Known about the structure:
The complex is a heterodimer. By secondary structure, chain A is mainly α. Chain A is 79% helix and 0% strand. In chain A, 35% of the residues are buried. The model of chain A has no long low-confidence stretch (mean pLDDT 92). By secondary structure, chain B is of the alpha/beta class. The model of chain B has no long low-confidence stretch (mean pLDDT 91). Chain B folds into two domains: 1-80 and 158-177 and 188-260, P-loop containing nucleotide triphosphate hydrolases (Rossmann fold, 3-Layer(aba) Sandwich); 89-155, no CATH class. In chain B, helix 4 (111-124) crosses helix 5 and helix 7 (198-204) crosses helix 8 (238-259). The longest helix of chain B is centred in the C-terminal third of the chain and has 22 residues, at 238-259. The chains are: A mainly alpha, B alpha/beta. At the A-B interface, helix 7 and helix 8 of A face strand 6 and helix 3 of B.
Amino acid sequence: MKLLVPVRRENRIVLGVAFFIAFVALWFLVTWSGAVPKHFLASPWQTLASGWDLFATQNFGHDVGMTIWRVVGGFLLAAVIAVPLGIAMGVYKPIEAFFEPFVSFARYLPASAFIPLLILWVGIGEAQKLTVIFIGCFFQLTLMITMIVSGTRRDLVEAAYTLGCKDTGVIRRVVLPGAAPDIAEALRQVLGLGWTYIIVAELIGASSGIGHMITDSQALMATDHIIAGIVVIGLVGLLSDLLFKKVNQQLFSWSLLR
Amino acid sequence: MSQLSIRDVSKIFPGHKRDTPPTQALLPVRLEVADNDFITVLGPSGCGKSTLLRLVAGLETPTTGEIRLDGTRIVGAGADRGVVFQSYTLFPWLNVRQNICFGLREKGMKLSQQREISDRFIAQVGLRGFEDHFPKQLSGGMQQRVAIARALANDPKILLLDEPFGALDNQTRVLMQELLLGIWEQAQKTVMFITHDIDEAIFMASRVVVFSARPGRIKAEVAVDFPHPRHYTIKTSPEFMALKARLTEEIRVEAIAADH
Lengths: 258, 260
């Protein structure tokens, strides 16, 4: 192994898959040998079987769909406000000075701690789930976008001014295209954050969703269902992440040139 | 007519922190640049010559004095003064042609006309066949040629260049000097070129303005009377050598002063 030398593509895939296999093998070993009792940790095979059963007979697809819609809905609401606000904060420093201290403070407020309050305020319906995701994503996203836009190359801005741009032209033709790849990357990361909040939101006061299925299974000590649910979240998260990455690479191919 | 008139312009930068004193970058400078003149501003590093260019470009505001272009006072940057920077400032998300058309598009020019103008300048800087390349796919010298074309496509009254070839290797730099001079000889434009390279300053200029060490002021103005079109071989002529010896002496004194 040499420092910082990239791995060949095929080797990278082999190595990545190898760890998944090693992980599942270890999981199989501890359950098969009886080192961990069945009601604490279901075996891989049992998890797979109950995962299939969940989808086939218990309408788990509906739960997954609900969870995805909540994450994406809350995330989109956050993005629609955070992106323009972050851009405004990045380019206009008085706006940043006005909002930044509060946003920095709000970022550390744990979204899940708002759940009891939100149930009080907006009930246990969809609005509560969307709001949790919104709180979890919005402040983080705003700060990230502010930072990205603040990092706009000054020399490019100056070049645009000398080519006849006014302020709006500089924002539209230099700041936005320059920041777009990093903003897309920030959106991808924050969407991942949304997935960690949604389950907590669904653990309390939900009648559908992956989190709701997990709470129900806990009452029945069905660890196989819980693990299947967790794995499904991981897979859906990974899938959305890959999709996002692909779209970003397509849209901003210039930023990948070396 | 594109006459640049710099009248008693000075620049003081405020200190960065509360206790640091302000920096006098430029003592009052007086300079007239005639229409279609090619002047080079020569000086040691950090002497304020780039500050003077940024003032003319409108990227900085003078502390005292004023700058007029064709009698109009300069306030802020504008398309009438094209700038080529030392750092590579092509827009990385635009290809060569889109970069060259940047200012034309801002003016709202018709696409067919943009294409015609960019074609002309792409040919002039020798980049035919590279229209669809992105900046990162070009060498440093090619990027600076695009930057020159981008500035010229806007048809500015004056072209300002801030050590544009400073980051290039020696061979490329010499070729770029010939290219720029060739363009100037054809197009006739008022040019202000900042450099710390004595050969470069003499070879292209009709007048060399020598700057003192910081705080910058004009120390000497030297006319360069070689006829045009100039060939690179004049660099070995006795007249060129004599001029170089004289400027080397002027600059050497300032470099020593700057170092102490």
